[in-house]
Amino acid sequence: MQTPVAEQPKKVVRVIAPTVTPQEQAKNLYRQLRVVAYCRVSTKQEEQLNSYETQKNYYTERINAEPNWTLVAIFADKGITGTSVKNRDEFNKMIKLCKRGKVDMIITKSISRFARNTLDCLKYTRMLKAIGVDVFFEEQGIHSTQPGAEFYITIYGSIAQSESENISANVKFGKAQSAREGNVAFHYKNFLGYRKGEDGKPEIVPEEAETIRFIYESFLAGDSFGGIKAKLEEKGILSPSGTPTWRYSTIQSILTNEKYAGDAIINKTYIEDCISKKVKVNNGERQKFYVENNHPAIIDRATFARVQEELARRNGKLKVKQVGTKTEQGKYSSKFALTELLVCGECKTPYRRCTWTVKGKKKIVWRCINRLDYGKKYCHESPTVEESVLHEAIMNAISRMAKENAELLKTLKLHIGMGLDMGESEDESLDLQIKIAEIDAEFKAMLNAVSSDTVDTFDEQRVKELMDEKSKLQQQLAQIAERKQKRENTKSRLDEIFTILDGIKNRPMEYDDRLVRQIIECVVVESKERIKVVFVGGLEITETLINNI
Prior knowledge:
Blueprint: H1 22-30, E1 33-41, H2 46-64, E2 69-78, H3 89-99, E3 105-108, H4 111-114, H5 118-130, E4 134-137, E5 142-143, H6 149-180, E6 194-196, E7 202-204, H7 206-220, H8 225-235, H9 248-256, E8 264-266, E9 269-271, E10 279-281, E11 289-291, H10 301-315, H11 338-341, E12 342-344, E13 351-358, E14 361-368, H12 369-374, E15 385-386, H13 387-403, H14 405-415, H15 423-451, H16 460-504, H17 513-519, E16 520-525, E17 530-535, E18 540-544
Parallel strand pairs: 1-2, 1-3, 3-4, 12-16
Antiparallel strand pairs: 4-5, 6-7, 8-11, 9-10, 13-14, 14-15, 16-17, 17-18
Helix pairs in contact: 5-6, 10-16, 13-16, 15-16
């Protein structure tokens, strides 16, 4: 016989009424809300700074007028964008005060004053709500601790962010238009060589310009960044920031800055977006504009171009060092010119300067790196060359150039195809410019047609065709300009070389590392008895090594 199952009692729900002790009632009745105000103006314009003072006065009176409010502090950021709280010092101070439990409520004009970034707005209102701090947005009449407040904060925050993005887009458009017109924003702070003139345009500071020229001359003479740094500090020349110590990066920046050649590149950097405000180097993501002859030049174009070529050459000399080797192939060294110029005729490997001890006497010689590291494994016949003999042969080659320069100049120009008549390229360049102008005119006509309601919409396919064609033409134009500049640089370099040769042809010849760097492209060791000297421009002269080892 089974035992009967007991019936489950009926579920009963009772309400427990809230109870408040007399002490708590009195506390809430007389409790004062600790209130802070936050205000912000977007720019440093005078009228907006006045607005800043007005806001402070308003919130002081507003909070003091409420009998249950106690003014704790007023926080105000001046001239700071609202798209991010990262650089808003006063805002961050206010948040810290809230976290310490010193604030019950924040009052601010609107969500756009608090933050124009929806994510930041939600992040901080949620965090403040969690620690018991209410944010009251006056303009919208929203308390962040009220039910459903987050929905409205999201809506209004999104509107504020969209407004910020539209403003940013308008600013970008204005800057782009200004760039197309060649308007350069010149920053003088910590910039050596220029100051703002009375007419508002850059003017050269003579004593600083001498420092710039010294840096360029030293670099072309073979000095490394470290060598230039040491010379500047030894001379007591102050850096652009006013300190006696120079940085390698500062020297590099000076050597690569087109402004010293009188030109300017617009849009070297860009702001990724109006929220993060992250500044990025423009590596082709945005349009750039190159403005020639924007201001007086400190460095002539030919010298500037030579420096860029030399920088590229040195940067291209990678350290090639294998395990077990004692030397590095291709490493740039400024101490001796031949470290960069002397190569083996058999294996094409650079030579290195070594010290030999023969019968107790030290002798300076130059040897192929492959022979130094691997014996005859990769290079079988490369000779060792005594330095004094090598120097004598090189100077003999330079002397021949100096004495015969008139005829050799013609040979040089013919050898490198130096077409001094630029008429053909100029005609080609003009044709391309005309075609670009025609495209611009057609595009403008399409815009006018849409704005005047002649047509309803753009012909998107035609617009794409026009933009693609314009881009190709601009690339061709840039290539022509680059070729022209290279020819002009070569001509300038040749003129410089023969000016040097004219100056030395009638005086005794002594080996000079600086002179060798200026006029010689490379020196090839062909045998124990012979070297080939290749001059800038490609002319070659074979010279005998007398009394070599």
